[in-house]
């Protein structure tokens, strides 16, 4: 019996119509509150032309000005006998040949592209996520193995840590770590934020690791031990590689959540992506535009991470 091929394009069309309907609903909602869209104000928060003032270093005179395209090269003779050569943008010249200048007088400006606050916030979110994610993975791996340890002290301490962290809000943990531990140990806000996120992530990774190891058949460890491997070697070479394949999806989900959780460190004055967005709103008054851009930047981080985890999971699945 020949199986009929199912048509998928009507469903894709329906998906597109639903998305268009949501966009129209959003536009209509903003029109009800008389919101004026100002997307032209947004690009400057990604990149802008920064101006750097060029000033005279000493008292002297402008000897010559040589124009070269959009740039102008100034040669100044100082009263002390030396010379100062300065390049500025031609349209910003504020002196002419023969003018006397004093120390600190503005000669013009040079313009160059600079990263805006949203890009700087994106970079801060990235490095905080990577640092706290790496530390959290190490903490979680060690804690997860401690929860499986035959040593009662290691099991008890790791259980207390996991339950304490998972039972309290991350925001409260950040406050405690920064205002109490950070003050006592004189830690920077960045260190306190990364440490709080790492400890929070480590508790959840510990449970993921514990569940993954316990999901492996006990016979795998017994077979490894019968071949002469000790407990540590069996865990490292036999059990953990198999458990890693099973815990990859929840680990990827945890790290994606970590990227979003970095927005909470803004409460201790770390200018990551969310705080940069709030600051941009105060100067642009483009509330919806900025928040949509912030959401898109989080998607730029998380979608490739999710796609990479999916590809890695499929590749590891084929190796079974």
Automatic annotation (TrEMBL):
Pfam families in UniProt: BPD_transp_1
Biological process annotations from GO: amino acid transport
Molecular functions (GO terms): transmembrane transporter activity
Main location: membrane
Keyword terms, alphabetized: Amino-acid transport, Cell membrane, Membrane, Transmembrane, Transmembrane helix, Transport
Membrane-spanning segments: 7-28, 126-146, 167-185, 191-209, 280-301
Cellular compartment(s): Cell inner membrane; Cell membrane
Domain named ABC transmembrane type-1: residues: 122-309
Gene Ontology CC: one annotated term: ATP-binding cassette (ABC) transporter complex
Family named by the database record: Belongs to the binding-protein-dependent transport system permease family. HisMQ subfamily.
Alphabetical list of NCBIfam families matching this protein: HEQRo_perm_3TM
UniProt function note: Part of the binding-protein-dependent transport system for glutamine; probably responsible for the translocation of the substrate across the membrane.
Protein name: Putative glutamine transport system permease protein GlnP
Species this chain originates from: Pseudomonas mangiferae
């Amino acid at each position: 019996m020949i199986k009929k091929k199912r048509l998928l394009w009507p469903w894709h069309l329906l998906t597109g119509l639903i998305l268009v309907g949501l966009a129209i609903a959003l536009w209509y909602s903003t029109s009800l509150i008389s919101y004026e869209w100002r997307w032209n104000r947004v690009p400057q928060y990604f990149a802008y032309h920064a101006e750097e003032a060029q000033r005279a270093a000493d008292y002297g005179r402008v000897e010559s000005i040589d124009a070269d395209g959009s740039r102008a090269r100034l040669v100044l003779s100082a009263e002390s006998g030396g010379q100062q050569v300065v390049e500025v943008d031609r349209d910003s010249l504020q002196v002419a040949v023969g003018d006397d200048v004093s120390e600190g007088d503005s000669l013009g400006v040079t313009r160059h592209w600079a990263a805006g606050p949203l890009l700087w916030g994106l970079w801060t979110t990235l490095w905080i996520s990577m640092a706290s994610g790496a530390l959290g993975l190490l903490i979680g791996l060690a804690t997860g193995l401690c929860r499986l340890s035959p040593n009662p002290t290691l099991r008890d301490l790791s259980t207390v840590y996991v339950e304490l962290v998972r039972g309290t809000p991350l925001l409260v943990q950040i406050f405690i770590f920064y205002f109490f531990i950070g003050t006592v140990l004189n830690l920077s806000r960045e260190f306190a934020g990364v440490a709080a996120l790492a400890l929070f992530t480590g508790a959840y990774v510990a449970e993921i690791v514990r569940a993954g190891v316990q999901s492996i058949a006990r016979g795998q460890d017994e077979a490894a031990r019968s071949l002469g491997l000790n407990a540590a070697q069996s865990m490292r070479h036999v059990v953990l590689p198999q458990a890693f394949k099973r815990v990859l999806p929840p680990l990827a989900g945890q790290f994606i959540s970590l990227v979003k959780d970095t927005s909470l460190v803004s409460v201790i004055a770390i200018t990551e992506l969310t705080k940069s967005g709030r600051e941009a709103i105060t100067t642009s008054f483009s509330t919806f535009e900025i928040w949509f851009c912030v959401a898109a930047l989080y998607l730029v981080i998380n979608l490739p991470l999710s796609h990479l985890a999916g590809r890695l999971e499929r590749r590891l699945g084929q190796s079974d």
